[in-house]
Amino acid sequence: MRVLVTGAAGFIGSTTAELLLAKGHEIVALDSLISGRKENVPVNATFVEGDCGDMDLIRSLGSFDACVHFAARIEPGESMKYPEVFFANNVASSFRLLDALVQSGVERFVFSSSCAVYGDQVEMPIDETRSIQPQSPYGQSKRMVEEGLQWLVACGRLRAASLRYFNAAGGTLAHPERHSPEIHLIPIAFDAAAGRRPYLEIFGSDYPTPDGTCIRDYIHVTDLAEAHVRAITALDAHPELILNMGSGVGYSNRQIVETVQRITNTEFEVRYTDRRPGDPAAAIASNERTHELLGWLPEHSELDVIIGDAWAAHQTIL
To answer: What is the CATH number of domain 2-169+219-246?
Structure first.
């Protein structure tokens, strides 16, 4: 297949593009490079620098069998300050992309969504039938694109899969996790372990959890990439898929810090500060439906594997 991968210079996009190439697909890797890094793009992909919302550019790229759409702003806290930026980038650009793709006859669309659409849920794990109540403009932006895709499917315009990520983590030597600015706990903890930060800041120590810190479900990026590849094929049998991407196991921020310190064999200062707006106390996935429909189970998402792989990858950029 010929597949368009947007956001292909990012952490998850580049890893997925690499896997698609390994499975024999032709990849056009599109990225604006505003936050992505060109060196992340697999060498055998055709790289195009540009905005996924540029309809003329998308039409100029020719026909595709599928599109996997990663390009988006991903910072929930930042979205609470600048919601207009997130709606312009994550929603408006996505719909311009979809308009151009539908016009050119693309039939399969895999969307990088988020567990942020669920908001602050009490009962764990969260399955796909749970109510949708995003607590940030970021989560709302993902919900809006999902709703648009549902209408496109209902109107027979394309087949779509929305994959609701929990916490993507891990990494490979070719595709380490790095963002600018960095907002994810594990790579920030690595910076503290390596002495690049004077201390690690944890947002909130008074959540209604066993140790007072947030609980999250971490999923290895290679497991995520495999799910995207399977979702493209699964759209042949299912016109619409809405699936959780998680391991089904939750770890607190304190547990993450302890594991990072053990694996890196370092001690570093940890400071606890106020809660961050938009952060739920816990988010743990039920992945039963994903297993049923994709035949997928995470194979690399034990916490020690995630942090061990992430640390090895992180050291390539020190």
So the answer is: 3.40.50.720
Q: Does residue 25 contact residue 90 with C-beta atoms inside 8 Å? A: no
H or E segment to which residue 69 belongs: strand 66-69
CA distance 274 to 254: 15
pLDDT in tens, 115-136: 999 999 999 999 999 999 999 9
> Which residue in 138, 165, 207, 251 is the catalytic one?
138
Q: Catalytic annotation on 138?
A: yes
Q: In the chain, what are the domain boundaries?
A: 2-169+219-246
Sort strands 250-252 and 108-114 into parallel, antiparallel or unpaired.
Answer: unpaired
CA 269 – CA 199 distance, rounded (Å): 5
Q: Mean pLDDT, the chain, as a whole number?
A: 96
CB 214 within 8 Å of CB 273: no
**Residue pair 110/66 in contact by the 8 Å Cβ criterion:** yes
Tokens 């034990």 label which residue?
Answer: 302
Print burial letters for 210-239: b (CB count within 10 Å at least 16), e (below 16): eebbbbbbbbbbbbbbbbbbbbbebbeeee
284 Cβ contact partners less than 8 Å away, ≥ 6 residues apart = 124, 125, 126, 166, 215, 216, 217, 246, 248, 249, 250
Task: Tell me what pLDDT residue 276 has.
Answer: 84
Which residues, other chains included, contact 275 with Cβ-Cβ below 8 Å and sequence gap of 6+? 203, 204, 206, 207
Rounded to whole angstroms, the Cα distance separating 243 from 272 reads: 34
Q: What is the pLDDT of residues 70-98, one digit of tens each?
A: 999 998 889 999 999 999 999 999 999 99
Q: How many CB atoms lie within 10 A of CB 68?
A: 29
Query: For the packed helices 253-264 and 185-193, what is the interaxial angle rounded to 10 degrees?
Result: 40
pLDDT tens-digit series, residues 138-187: 999 999 999 999 999 999 999 999 999 999 999 998 888 887 778 899 99
302, 179 contact by CB (below 8 A):
no
